[in-house]
Write a structure and sequence with these properties.
Elements (H helix, E strand, L loop, with lengths): L4 E5 L11 E8 L2 H14 L3 E4 L5 E3 L4 E8 L4 E6 L2 E7 L4 H11 L1 E2 L20 E2 L2 E2 L4 E8 L4 E6 L11 H4 L4 E12 L9 H7 L9 H14 L13 E4 L5 E2 L1 H10 L6 E2 L5 E2 L2 H7 L7 E2 L2 E3 L6 E3 L7 H19 L8 E3 L4
Parallel strand pairs: 2-5, 3-5, 4-21
Antiparallel strand pairs: 1-2, 6-7, 7-13, 8-13, 9-10, 11-12, 11-13, 14-20, 15-17, 16-17, 18-19, 19-20
This protein binds flavin-adenine dinucleotide.
């Protein structure tokens, strides 16, 4: 069994560089180890935080009063079924390395998710997505350890309850430990149909066209870099948890109320009659431009949705003070409440 260390500072394990000490910290290198560690802590009634790449976490400056288990499992298996490639990947594998491999092998379906930090096991948690793709489009099964029943099983994509930046895992947080994910990919040198306007423009194609996988990956990486959304130690704007707020999805009444306050605002009309509104537009038009600072926390100078810790010295309390100011300002101006995308540990908005 892996070592258990006391008082390990969590900040270095998060992309925001925030988080006090863990009461106990350990790593799991195999599925069996991961299950044994979590099951053991559950038997003892010890709180558990499963840690991936720490790129979607805001951890309290007081740290975590329990056991942090870092997922370090490895392995990729490839099979074929019904003309598709089934890629089964252990939770601890790096997500972007997997995407790079898929692109190199000619496996189509995840290329627009290039450059997203973090580990494979976290991708189903918030249905990771960008540039017109999300993992719900390719996840065939998720192998989980169910902490309630103590059993290991495979969830189908339907059982994962995927929605925009949401899933059954977020709905019932902490119940399942993701052990591995199987993605069903198309054997093709071409990307999926390009579904995101900014990407289509960058590639010089129409929406719905397909392009060579490597071109799609490169264009996505370029777009992401220009927004500080690819981790880069030399770019303080990337000291973030990605987008801090999700794009609000409004029902007809809320959408009408917003339209009367902000006629002609940008919106995406969804097939189910709901209206998605770009949170970045709301934030900027509520008076919070790129680079806006509060204490040592700052809105990214490249992307309004990312709240950053540019010097690495801000605490979670400072970041949350900025987040509250932005959330309240948007509500006051537009009557819309923004909701945080990252997972909060020991903190709240
Ligand atoms: C610069 C930047 C850009 C980003 N861009 C995007 C983007 O374009 N789209 C997007 O969707 N996200 C984006 N993100 C957010 C983040 O990268 C993703 O949510 C990613 O999937 C998180 O992975 P992680 O391994 O770092 O998870 P962590 O931050 O370590 O954990 C996130 C949550 O998942 C849980 N978890 C982790 N592993 C497991 C497991 N094996 N079993 C059960 N629970 C687990 C944790 O307990 C926690 O609740 C971005 C983040 C950054 C910093």
């Amino acid at each position: 069994m892996a070592d258990r260390l006391a008082g390990v500072a969590l900040a270095p394990y998060t992309t925001l560089r925030m988080g006090g000490p863990a009461r106990a910290f350990t790593q799991a290198r195999t599925q069996d180890e991961l299950i044994a560690i979590v099951a053991g802590a559950d038997r003892e009634g010890e709180p558990v935080l499963v840690l991936g790449g720490g790129s979607n976490l805001v951890i309290s400056d007081d740290g975590f009063d329990g056991l942090v288990v870092r997922v370090a499992t490895r392995g990729v298996e490839v099979a074929s079924r019904d003309g598709r490639v089934l890629v089964t990947v252990q939770a601890g594998e790096d997500w972007d390395a997997l995407v790079a491999r898929c692109v190199a092998e000619g496996w189509s379906g995840v290329e627009c998710l290039s450059g997203i930090p973090g580990l494979v096991g976290s991708t189903p948690i918030q249905n990771v997505g960008a540039y017109g793709q999300d993992v719900s489009q390719t996840v065939a099964a998720v192998r989980v350890y169910d902490r309630m029943t103590g059993e290991v099983g495979d969830l189908t994509a339907a059982e994962c309850g995927f929605a925009y930046r949401h899933s059954a895992f977020k709905h019932d947080p902490g119940r399942h430990v993701v052990l591995a994910v199987t993605y069903a990919l198309e054997r093709s040198p071409l990307s999926g149909p390009v579904a995101y306007r900014e990407l289509a423009v960058r590639l010089g194609v129409e929406i719905g066209e397909r392009v060579p996988l490597a071109e799609a990956r490169e264009a996505v990486l370029e777009l992401r870099r220009s927004k500080g959304m690819v981790l880069d130690p030399g770019d303080p704007d990337t000291r973030s948890a990605g987008s801090f707020f999700t794009n609000p999805v409004l029902g007809p009444d809320e959408a009408a109320a917003l339209a009367s306050r902000a006629p002609g605002h940008p919106r995406w009309d969804m097939p189910d009659g709901m209206v998605k509104v770009p949170a970045a537009w709301l934030i900027e038009n509520a008076g919070f431009p790129k680079g806006y600072e509060k204490g040592r926390a700052r809105i990214s100078t490249k992307h309004t949705l990312a709240l950053t810790n540019p010097t690495g010295e801000a605490g979670a309390d400072e970041l949350l003070a900025l987040a509250r100011e932005v959330r309240d300002g948007v509500h006051e101006k537009f009557g819309v409440w923004l909701v945080n995308e990252p997972v909060f540990v020991g903190v709240s908005l």
